[in-house]
């Protein structure tokens, strides 16, 4: 019964948004309350679940989303985005630009959490789209496929790292297996698949549209690249810093502070205010106006992403994810395939890759130990399954839809299918490696 209720709620959400054109934010709130009532959460606690879901989702994202939009808007307004696009096209050309996006997404995705990588790379994607009149999905999906794969497969990202600990796997071996599986998954779900989507008309957020020349000095190419990539560089440095010393680290507390994504974004924006703003002839007032406009442009996106977390929390608090996993627990399948399937079903029902992965881990662990299944491959099987078919109950779905400004139908055809391909290719890679090492 729980599975039927979850599926009905998801169907109702799709109908409200797609057929009746109700705001996604309001639709999520209504369906979250209805789901809570049908799943047996005490009425007095439903609002707490909704508020907690919104708070947990936005708590880690709202600062990054807003500061990222400000940085992206300044990159566009200052002319730095055009410099980035021109340089990349000059090096790779139109023919290989997709592969440039893939490599960039993979390198950026290893140290960065998915949401941060998305926000930081969107201005680069859209600057190429606007300047060279290229299809947005064709350019953007390969990079986002790379970001998604690194987020789901590779330590040190939160979910695979937590799975490594739970399964008592080896972090290094898991990473090596993950990279071997990630490369073909990215190629199929990114450059190859996106070539079939050129017919989708996307109208990316105008917040990142390059501005007409205003008489201000255009920043140089080196300055443009350094400013745009400064958040990535800071996060990489703080991640590597602990490995440089074998004893107690000097400035450990400062590095720990600077290593927080929100602090990194704040420092990067402060630098950009000087390098792309005041240094190029803009007044502080002009720069602040740019920042205010950027936040206005993404206000509804922030609300939609937050409200998607409300439904996820209601499903989690009701125990729906555990009940769905319990239904699958006794299915007669090989452990790696069963773990993938369990994570995939929970992901499709609940919407959270992290919830899907960790819920599956707790249930599949005894079976893994009994059958002596390779724990490193189990990490990757669960991680791949947890990416399966992102749709309307996933915050990532709405980030893609709203930033690229396409319909729900086209988001399913592009984003959701891309995630399904990543998950399927991940499972195929796990099964192949399992046969090789037997």
UniProtKB/TrEMBL annotation:
GO terms for molecular function: gluconate transmembrane transporter activity; L-idonate transmembrane transporter activity. The chain crosses the membrane at residues 26-46, 58-76, 96-129, 136-154, 174-193, 225-245, 251-277, 298-316, 336-365, 377-400, 420-437. The keyword Zinc does not apply. Pfam families: GntP_permease. GO terms for cellular component: plasma membrane. It comes from the Bacteria. Signal peptide: none annotated. The keyword Transmembrane helix applies. Coiled coil: none annotated. Keywords: Membrane, Transmembrane, Transmembrane helix. This is Gluconate transporter. PANTHER family: GNT FAMILY GLUCONATE TRANSPORTER, GNT-II SYSTEM L-IDONATE TRANSPORTER.
């Amino acid at each position: 019964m729980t599975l039927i209720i979850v599926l009905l709620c998801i169907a109702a959400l799709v109908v409200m948004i797609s057929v009746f054109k109700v705001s996604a934010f309001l639709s999520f709130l209504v369906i979250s309350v209805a789901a809570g009532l049908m799943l047996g959460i005490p009425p007095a606690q439903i609002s707490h679940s909704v508020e907690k879901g919104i708070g947990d989702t936005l708590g880690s994202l709202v600062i990054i989303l807003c500061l990222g939009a400000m940085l992206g808007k300044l990159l566009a307004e200052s002319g730095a985005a055009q410099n980035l696009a021109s340089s990349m096209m000059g090096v790779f050309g139109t023919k290989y630009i997709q592969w440039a996006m893939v490599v960039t997404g993979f390198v950026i995705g290893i140290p960065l959490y998915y949401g941060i990588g998305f926000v930081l790379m969107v201005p680069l994607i859209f600057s190429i789209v606007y300047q060279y009149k290229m299809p947005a999905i064709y350019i953007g999906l390969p990079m986002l496929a790379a970001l998604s794969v690194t987020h789901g497969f590779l330590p040190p990202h939160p979910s695979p790292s937590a799975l490594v600990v739970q399964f008592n796997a080896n972090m290094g071996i898991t990473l090596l297996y993950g990279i071997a599986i990630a490369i073909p998954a990215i190629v199929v779900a990114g450059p190859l698949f996106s070539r079939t989507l050129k017919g989708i008309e996307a109208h990316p957020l105008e917040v990142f549209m390059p501005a007409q020349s205003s008489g201000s000095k255009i920043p140089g190419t080196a300055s443009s690249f350094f400013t745009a990539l400064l958040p990535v560089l800071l996060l990489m440095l703080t991640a590597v810093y602990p490995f440089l010393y074998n004893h107690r680290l000097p400035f450990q507390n400062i590095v720990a502070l600077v290593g927080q994504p929100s602090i990194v974004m704040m420092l990067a924006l402060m630098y950009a205010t000087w390098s792309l703003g005041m240094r190029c002839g803009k007044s502080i007032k002009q720069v602040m106006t740019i920042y205010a406009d950027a936040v206005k442009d993404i206000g509804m996106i922030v609300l939609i992403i937050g409200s998607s977390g409300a439904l996820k929390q209601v499903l989690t608090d009701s125990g729906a994810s555990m009940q769905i996993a319990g239904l699958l627990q006794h299915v007669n399948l090989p452990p790696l395939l069963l773990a993938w399937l369990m994570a995939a079903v929970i992901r499709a029902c609940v919407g959270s890759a992290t919830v899907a992965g960790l819920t599956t881990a707790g249930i599949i662990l005894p079976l893994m130990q009994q059958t002596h299944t390779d724990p490193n491959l189990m990490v990757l099987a669960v991680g791949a399954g947890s990416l399966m078919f992102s749709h309307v109950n996933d915050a990532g779905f709405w980030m893609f839809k709203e930033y690229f400004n396409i319909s729900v139908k086209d988001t399913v055809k592009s984003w959701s299918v891309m995630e399904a391909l990543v998950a399927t290719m991940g499972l195929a890679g796990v099964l192949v490696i399992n046969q090789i090492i037997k």
